[in-house]
Design a protein that fits this description.
The structure holds 3 protein chains of 3 kinds. By secondary structure, chain A is mostly beta strands. Chain A contains 1 helix and 7 strands. In chain A, 8% of the residues lie in helices and 34% in strands. In chain A, 45% of the residues are buried. Chain B is an alpha/beta fold. In chain B, helix 3 crosses helix 4, helix 10 packs across helix 12 and helix 11 packs across helix 12. Chain C is of the alpha/beta class. Chain C has 2 domains: 203 residues, FAD/NAD(P)-binding domain, CATH 3.50.50.60; 152 residues, D-Amino Acid Oxidase, subunit A, domain 2 (D-Amino Acid Oxidase, Chain A, domain 2, 2-Layer Sandwich). In chain C, the strands form 4 sheets. In chain C, strands 5-6-4-14-15-16-13-17 form an 8-stranded mixed sheet, sandwiched between helices. The radius of gyration of chain C is 20 Å and the shape is globular. The chains are: A mainly beta, B alpha/beta, C alpha/beta. Chains in contact: A-B, A-C, B-C. At the B-C interface, helix 11, strand 23 and helix 14 of B face helix 5, strand 13, helix 8 and strand 17 of C.
């Protein structure tokens, strides 16, 4: 069993295994939509899963447009759907 | 030194082969683990003939002359006299590596086609469903539909079922008879029968019923619509079925990632299936001096072919002899790959799946209606002009997902075919990965 | 199209606005392009409509009138190309003397200028580096989406009886008795007594086809495009060094930052200038310099990511003035080219000048400083 860590997604605590991506952790916690689009405010989630499509981008500790499918969740990260 | 970019089957094979005579190799990859998209894994690789992966991982890890640089994203490549400089981002800073020789093994990603709802959460590529499962140990949903075309749907569907997902549908757009069109490919690759039998066993075990000639034509808040298509992929509207599902994983073969080879200036050409790929010679050498390319970027062919191409590229770059047995093995796999392209072509009928309001460019949220208007009202005649008018392909992914679709939609509207020049131009991306302006400026001479 | 009155070669913004102006004057106009609409320099531009970067002189007079004509053209064809008087803010990096002197001269020639001190500067651009303490605001500076503009203008020309033929490469200019008679293209032969060369960076080649000469060369520039961000940049903000570089004849690379936000949320960063022919390759060192300059203006941009970079070729004449007028050798061949990086801004003004000259009408200014005749004595 891997080490469990916790971070926040839009202010809500999410638990996951160390080494999981932000997207995997959030989706596994039961939230599929990772962000809303800029113009149409449509919900979006993981799509390509491998860092190509940029549809899963979130704000990681204040830095915008980070691909949540690539970035490993770290303890106490603050993840927001948008800034 | 030889820099190998990409640690999937082709890159691993290239690095291992080059290191056999002690050549210094730097293996750069953006992921935290070896294996690329194909051998994505958390502990040991599972699946058909996965022991090959563990063998190769062990060789690469133990080779003294291979330096493995993980979690490094290459954003640009420059020529510096006779040397090649690779600039990459790692852990929030920028570094460079310089070498005499470069092997690109940048792989491919799922090709996607737009249909109403393909941008909704829950709709994803088979690769995404597999990445979540193999890379992170999670299921994207409890019930899943796997659809699209090509043999990759089999490992994805069976992998999800083995992990406990309910695969409520497995839909191949083509007819199962297409394989019989190329008997010579199967005769040259008898081992493929074994693979087919392996997956057939799993499909039976998990009680999946693969259906042919059907596509996902709509996904709307957990409701999927499956519609029959004719041989050119046009929908037969009367034959549709709608039911609830958590995830639809839809893929239409693969698009190679051409970004880095494009930056280096390697010559591209359009493959038999309309995919833009790099031109290489028998040693996998590209049109650019001291730049070799192996794997999917020289033509979609799967892991078996990628391994052989990687090995040949690695041997050639390190000036070792390439046996004729190895060359023949690659030839056999190439015949198989070509048969595959012909057996699972993406037919033009897909252009009729999207509605006016359907998003075509996901990043900039450009709809089919806007693209149609740019052609009908503003006089766009090719994808470049349509892009300038609508911003399609100008977003974060730089057209990696939509540019081929936009080209083909515009071509359909103007009743032209997409020119090779246009296909090649749309893969031109001088900034391979986003880089913070602060880091970029700090690197100034 | 049967017997047009005039043929415009080039469907960039200069050709498009010339065609509209001639159409509105009652001529039947055929526009042809070897590619599609906006496939040359217009498609690689930022859409600058600037008065702030011009020294007093004929180009400024043209720029001021042209800027107003942009708004008239918008009314004429409909609001559909994101025209916006966003205003320019020019900041002085070191000594503000030269900037303030230029602004004072410009204001005597019809440019609205407003001197900015530390607090008014940072009120306009709150994310600007706090060290900048002096600048000038130019409310007339404007912006448009040039590709859309050219397309809308061409569409209007067609609606008013003109025609547009794309993908037609000119293979020959037919000259009879010292006057143009028509053109041969890959899509057929077209005859007209008036030909307008609006081919921008390629105008020299076209002049040569007619047996004439036009010294227009490409000056390469890069533009950086960032990811979409929060609104950090509110105007067109640039360093006063830019004005010096625009006017420079140095072939070497010059960079000076122009930073601006766009409607889609991205930030554009220009502008480098090099005269190295049509070399399309990417020069990462230039990108680094531009990024360093942009982040020194706006430190907040350090964390903003560069997404794309593209290059274009500005049509460049040795004296930095556009070439507008009838050819010095061939009657009926008119040039409107060589606008360098100011082609978008100067397009409708140039179109008015050339239309007035063709019709023999009096124009809003004396067009002789732009005449192609100024190169007639240059030895080849």
């Amino acid at each position: 069993m891997s080490k469990q860590i916790s971070f926040t997604f839009n202010g809500v605590a999410v638990q996951c295994e160390e080494g999981q991506s932000i997207a995997a952790a959030v989706i596994n916690s039961g939230t599929l939509a990772l962000r809303k689009t800029r113009f149409g405010e449509e919900p979006r989630s993981i799509f390509c899963g491998i860092g190509i499509c940029f549809d899963c981008v979130v704000v990681v500790d204040g830095v915008a447009n980070q691909r949540s499918c690539l970035i490993e969740a770290k303890a106490d990260m603050n993840i927001e759907s948008s800034s | 030194m030889i820099i190998v970019i990409g640690a999937g089957p082709a890159g691993l094979a290239a690095a291992e082969a080059a290191s056999r005579n002690g050549s210094e190799v730097a293996l750069i990859d953006s992921a935290s683990r070896l294996g690329g998209q194909y051998w994505r894994h958390r502990s040991t690789v599972t699946g058909y003939r996965s022991n090959r992966a563990d063998l190769l991982f062990a060789k690469v890890k133990s080779a003294a002359s291979i330096t493995y640089i993980s979690e490094a994203t290459v954003w640009s490549i420059e020529r510096d006299g006779e040397l090649i400089r690779v600039n990459y981002l790692q852990g929030g800073s920028e570094s460079s590596l310089t070498a005499e020789k470069l092997i690109l093994a940048t792989g491919a990603y799922d090709r996607s086609l737009p249909f109403p709802g393909w941008d909704q959460p829950g709709s994803m590529t088979p690769g995404a469903a597999q990445a979540l499962l193999k890379g992170h140990g999670i299921l994207a949903g409890q019930s899943v539909v796997v659809a699209g075309t090509g043999p990759f749907l089999l490992p994805v569907a069976t992998g999800l079922a083995q992990a406990g997902a309910k695969v409520v549908g497995l839909y191949e757009a083509h007819s199962p008879l297409r394989w019989l069109l190329s008997p010579q490919a199967l005769l040259l690759n008898v081992s493929k029968f074994a693979e087919l039998i392996y997956y057939a066993g799993l499909i039976r075990k998990y009680r999946m019923a693969p259906r042919f000639g059907r596509v996902v034509s709509r996904f709307d808040k957990g409701q999927v619509t499956i519609t029959s298509v004719n041989s050119s992929f046009a929908l037969k509207r009367k034959r549709a079925l709608t039911f609830e599902v958590d995830v639809v994983a839809v893929g239409w073969g693969f698009s190679p990632d051409l970004t880095l080879g494009g930056i280096v200036g390697c010559k591209e050409r359009v493959d038999v299936d309309g995919t833009t790929i790099f031109e290489v010679d028998g040693d996998q050498l590209s049109s650019q001096k001291n730049v070799w390319i192996a794997g999917e970027a020289t033509g979609i062919g799967g892991a078996d072919l990628s391994l052989l191409e990687g090995e040949i590229a690695g041997l050639s770059a390190s000036s070792q002899k390439i046996s004729s047995i190895l060359r023949f093995a690659r030839f056999r796999k190439q015949v198989f790959a070509d048969a595959l392209k012909c057996s699972y072509p993406v037919k033009d009928g897909w252009r009729s799946w999207a509605e006016k309001s359907t998003t075509i460019c996901r990043c900039e949220e450009v709809s089919l209606g806007e693209i149609e208007e740019s052609v009908a009202e503003l006089g766009a005649e090719d994808s470049r002009t349509a892009k300038l008018f609508t911003r399609a392909g100008m977003g974060l992914c730089q057209g990696r997902i939509c540019s081929r679709n936009v080209s083909e939609i515009v071509a359909g509207l103007t009743k032209c075919s997409v020119t090779d020049e246009e296909r090649i131009a749309s893969s031109n991306r001088p900034i391979a990965a986003p880089i913070a302006l602060g880091l970029l400026g700090d690197g100034k001479k | 199209m049967q017997s047009p009155d005039a043929i415009v070669i080039g469907a960039g913004i200069v050709g498009a606005s010339s065609a509209l102006s001639l159409t509105n004057a009652g001529l039947k106009v055929l526009v042809i392009d070897r590619g599609a609409v906006s496939s040359g320099t217009t498609g690689a531009g930022e859409g600058n409509i600037l008065v702030s970067d011009k020294d007093p002189g004929p180009e400024l007079t043209l720029a001021l009138r042209s800027r107003d004509l942009w708004f008239e053209m918008q009314d004429d064809v409909g609001d559909s190309f994101e025209l916006e008087a966003k205003g320019g803010v020019v900041v002085a990096r070191h000594d503000d003397g030269p900037l303030l002197k230029l602004a004072a001269e410009q204001s005597q020639h019809g440019v609205t200028t407003q001197k900015l001190n530390q607090s008014s500067l940072h009120e306009l651009e709150p994310y600007l580096h706090p060290d900048f303490h002096s600048g000038v605001f130019y409310p007339q500076d404007a912006q448009c989406q040039p590709m859309l503009a050219a397309a809308q203008v061409i569409r209007t020309v067609i609606a008013r009886g003109g025609a547009f033929i794309s993908q037609a490469k000119v293979t020959r200019i037919v000259v009879e008795n010292g006057a143009v008679a028509g053109i041969e293209t890959s899509k057929g032969v077209f005859r007209a007594p008036i030909i307008i060369n609006a081919t921008g960076t390629w105008a020299g080649e076209l002049a040569q086809m007619a047996g004439s000469h036009l010294p227009i060369a490409p000056r390469k520039g890069f533009i950086l495009v960032t990811e979409p961000t929060k609104k950090y940049v509110f105007h067109k903000v640039y360093d006063s060094d830019y004005v010096t570089n625009v006017a420079s004849s140095d072939a070497d690379l010059q960079t000076s930052t122009v930073v601006e936000g766009t409607r889609s949320g991205t930030i554009l960063i220009g502008a480098s200038r090099e005269r190295i022919g049509f070399d399309g390759s990417m020069n990462y060192e230039i990108l680094r310099r531009l990024a360093a300059q942009a982040t020194s203006l706006f430190p907040v941009l350090r964390d903003v990511q560069l997404l794309r970079a593209y290059r274009g070729f500005r049509p460049y004449a040795p004296d930095h003035l556009p070439v507008i007028g009838e050819d010095s050798k061939v009657r009926g061949l008119w040039h409107s080219a060589g606008h360098e990086g100011a082609g978008i801004g100067l397009a409708p003004g140039s179109a008015a000048l050339i239309t007035d000259a063709i019709l023999g009408r009096e124009s809003f200014m004396d067009g002789s400083p732009f005449s192609p005749h100024r190169f007639a004595t240059v030895s080849l």
